[in-house]
Amino acid sequence: MSAGSVAVVVPEDIAVPSWDLYELSLPCTVFGKPQPDLADPWYELRLCGTGQADPGGLAVPGLALRTPYGLDDLVGADTVIVPSVPDACVEDGAPLPPALVSALRDAYDAGARMVSLCTGAFALAEAGLLDGRRATAHWMHTAQLAERYPKVQVDDSVLYVDDGDVLTSAGLTAGLDLCLHLVRRDLGAHVANQLARRMVVPAHRPGGQAQFVDLSVPATDDDGMAPVLEWARANLDQPLTVEDLARRAAMSPRTFYRRLQGATGLTPLQWLLNQRLSLAQGLLESTDLPIEKVGELSGLGTANNLRHHFLKQVGVSPSDYRRAFPRTA
C-alpha cells in the first residue's frame, strides 16, 4: 500500500465562489497534513494553479495562495483532484479553460487516478474522462451534468462513485467521504478509520445524497390545482386515492391525472408518496415520535412500510436518517 502524490487543481482567473473553498480545503486537510504515526511517508500534496499568471501566486477570493506548481505538474501525479469549477461554467455554460481540459487528459493518459468533488465532475466530463462511466455530483447540479454530457451515466443518489481510476463525489461533505475512501483504498481501513477519528467524522456514512434531497412538490403555475394539493397535504394521514383527489378538484380522474402530471411532472401516486416521505422526514428531524407513529401520521402505514419506502427512495433507514439530522432544542 502506498500513499503517493496528490495534485489538487485550484481554478483562478475566473471567479470561484468563496464556499467552494470548502471543497478545496478537504483534500488539503486529508492529504496535506503528515500523519507519520499512521503511515510514513504520507501523501505529497501539490496545489496546481490553472491561470496564465505567475504560478508563484494564486488569486483565490478571500486569500492568497503561493505554490510553485502549475497545470504541467498534474502530469506525473498519482492522483489528480478537481474540487470544483466556477459557477459560470455550471450555471451559464461558460467554457472551462482549454489548458485545464488538456492537462486533465494528459494526466489521465499518464496513468493518474482522476477524482472530482462536487462540480469538479464538469471538468472531468469536459475532458471526456466520464464518457460511458457512472458518475455523480451535487444533486443540485446532476440534471445539468446529465443534459450537457449525455454520454455520462449520472447517478444523483450516491455520495460518491468509485469507477476504478476515475472517482466522483457529490457536494460539500460528500467530498470528505470520497477523500477518506481514497485513504482507505491506498493505506487500508485502519489508517482511514484513525484519520476519521482525528477529524471527528464518521469513517463511512450510511446511505447516499438522496437523504438530503428536498422531496416536496415542484413549483407549479397551475393555480387551479393548488387548493386540492393543499388539502391533500393536510390529510396525508388519511387513505387517499386518485379518485378522492379528483372528486375534491371537481374533475374526472383522467383529467386530474393529466393536470397534476403537467403541473408537477409526477403521477398522482408519485406525488402523494413524495409528500408523505417529506412529512416523515420532517417528523424524524423535529420530533422524538416512535417510527410507528411517524409512519401513521405520514400516511405510510406501518413501521415496516415506512422503512421500505425510506430505503428505496431516500437511501437510508428512518433511524439512520434521524441520527443524521439530530433534533435541536
Radius of gyration: 23 Å
CATH topology of the largest domain: Rossmann fold
Q: By helix and strand content, what is the structural category?
A: alpha/beta
Percent strand equals: 5-15%
CATH superfamily of the largest domain: Class I glutamine amidotransferase (GATase) domain
Tell the overall outline.
elongated
Helix content: 40-55%
Report the average pLDDT across residues: 84
Q: Total domains, how many?
A: 2
CATH top-level class of the largest domain: Alpha Beta
Q: Catalogue the unreliable spans.
A: 52-56
Organism: Nonomuraea dietziae
GO molecular function: DNA-binding transcription factor activity; sequence-specific DNA binding
Protein name: Transcriptional regulator GlxA family with amidase domain
Domain HTH araC/xylS-type: 226-324
State the gist of this model.
The chain is an alpha/beta fold. The protein has 14 helices and ten strands. Helices cover 43% and strands 11% of the residues.
Features:
about 325 residues, alpha/beta, Rossmann fold, Arc Repressor Mutant, subunit A, 2 domains, 6-stranded mixed sheet, two-stranded antiparallel sheet, 14 helices, about 10% strand
Secondary structure layout:
Layout: E1 5-10, H1 21-32, E2 44-49, E3 58-60, E4 63-65, E5 79-82, H2 87-91, H3 98-109, E6 113-116, H4 120-126, E7 134-135, H5 142-148, E8 153-154, E9 160-162, E10 166-169, H6 173-187, H7 189-198, H8 226-234, H9 242-248, H10 253-264, H11 268-286, H12 291-298, H13 303-314, H14 318-324
Parallel strand pairs: 1-2, 1-5, 5-6, 6-10, 7-8
Antiparallel strand pairs: 3-4, 9-10
Keywords: DNA-binding, Transcription, Transcription regulation
Organism: Nonomuraea dietziae
InterPro entries: Class_I_gatase-like, DJ-1/PfpI, Homeodomain-like_sf, HTH_AraC, HTH_AraC-typ_CS, INH-QAR
